[in-house]
Amino acid sequence: MSSNLTLSREDIVRLSERVEGAQTRAYAIPKLTNEYPGMTIADSYAVQTQLRRRFIEQGHKLIGWKAGLTSKAKMVQMGVDVPSIGFLTDRMARPENSAISVSDLIHPRVECEVAFVMKHELRGPNCTAEQVLAATDYVLPAVEVIDSRFSGFKFDLESVIADNSSSARFVGGGRARYVEDIDLRTLGVVIEINGEMVAMGASAAVLGHPAEAIAMVVNILAELGEVLPAGSFVMSGAITEAIAVKPGDSVVARFQELGSVSMRFVE
Length: 267
Hints:
Blueprint lengths: L8 H17 L15 H17 L4 E7 L3 H7 L5 E6 L9 E3 L6 E11 L10 H7 E12 L9 H6 L4 E6 L15 E6 L2 E7 L7 H14 L9 E3 L7 E2 L5 E6 L3 E8 L1
Parallel strand pairs: 1-9, 3-12
Antiparallel strand pairs: 1-2, 4-5, 4-9, 4-10, 5-6, 7-8, 7-11, 11-12
Protein name: 4-oxalocrotonate decarboxylase
Pfam families: FAA_hydrolase (PF01557)
Family: Belongs to the hydratase/decarboxylase family.
């Protein structure tokens, strides 16, 4: 991937600082390609990697990864045609049933995903869904709170990846299950906000099978010179489109076979 880099080291550092400012102080920025129209996907991951380094230097712990833009609904919503990955840290995690403040977010939206917890390390390239399932300790339901940091909802894949694929918060819950005990292709999910159903989908929406999304994460990590360590928490991507939330909203994601995950949003 490094062969397609067009940004200088200084540009990469500057853009990571710009994205970090938007994330930590909750203000919107113009999409990065306005200033760097020739920016490549490799450039975007270089910015994301620099952002991850900055957070880890500040004491954040890397606990896993997420697949982004893996469902047709999400690709259509975002106007892109390739999935992406982003990193997850301990400071993004929120407990089940918690009150999540939106005053430090810009455009918060929720989406439900199947999360995988790995018992073995995985390496790409050419990682397969079968290898993912063999390396999985268990799966559990999760809700990701994503937050686009770009003004006017104008974005493109390059800017989104550099912004850590819109990662903001996540909540895991429900009941953990072994992969051999459930059919991960056919899990139905429903999102309710304030008791009203707002979205529904089936886990096959995620690249046909959520384990395919985890394999994709491993293979993109290989291009970045990284592996997926044992113990990682990995979210396999949105099963439904992302639904906007505001203070006062109570959200419940109900997963067939995996129970439900709930949270509420406050100022």
